[in-house]
Design a protein that fits this description.
Layout (H helix, E strand, L loop, with lengths): L9 H24 L6 H8 L3 H7 L3 H26 L3 H16 L3 H13 L5 H21 L10 H17 L8 H16 L2
Length: 200
């Protein structure tokens, strides 16, 4: 029996190609102009699809942003995992995991803050929203494994602390007072909060 995947049919290939064009168009326009200054019509035109087709893949600009950012977030998480594996202390490993996520979120600050709002308040039935929450869950699982390295943290409390660390990072990135903060400022702020949690 062959282990190769069954080739996609023409219809599936067309759908995949349209999704890739829409994702690339939205990513380029959002990065260049910010989500607030881009219309769905502009994205559809750049992707060479009709607006009706666009709405089959994402019903709102918020969902389009989730679609785009989820890809970047997943890649940042993998980069963070690799860096965390090389860190010695639980604190250093935690920050090694989180730093690429913070960097990803701050590429375009308003997009990053909008992404966080969509992730928290978006429609849970939307596939892109569900994917964002899945990645958050993976982040918290990775944090849990890291925190278990600390001999003061038992298996029962590690998942709770992981959720607290994750929440601290997201709130710090989303806060209006930090809109002008640098990546280093955000990272230092999160590190201070994590240190306080670990030294409780």
């Amino acid at each position: 029996m062959s282990s190769q995947a069954t080739p996609l049919g023409r219809r599936e290939r067309n759908k995949q190609q349209k999704l890739e064009r829409i994702t690339a168009a939205a990513a380029e326009l959002f990065t260049a102009h910010g989500i607030d200054d881009v219309t769905t019509q502009q994205i559809a035109e750049k992707a060479d699809v009709g607006t009706g087709t666009l709405f089959l893949y994402a019903k709102t600009k918020g969902e389009l942003l989730l679609l785009v950012q989820n890809v970047h977030y997943a890649a940042a998480l993998e980069t963070g995992r690799q860096a965390a594996a090389r860190a010695e202390s639980a604190l250093d490993a935690t920050m090694a995991l989180l730093r690429p996520i913070i960097e990803c979120n701050r590429v375009q600050v308003e997009n990053g803050r909008t992404y966080l709002r969509e992730m928290v308040f978006g429609n849970p039935a939307d596939a892109h929203h569900a994917e964002a929450l899945r990645i958050v869950g993976e982040t918290e699982t990775a944090l849990t494994d890291i925190l278990k390295r600390d001999p003061r943290i038992d298996d029962q409390h590690a998942p709770t602390l992981a959720r607290m660390v994750s929440a601290a990072m997201f709130v710090t990135m989303a806060a209006g007072v930090n809109a002008e903060a640098s990546i280093d400022d955000i990272t230092d702020d999160v590190r201070t909060q994590v240190e306080a949690l670990l030294d409780r």
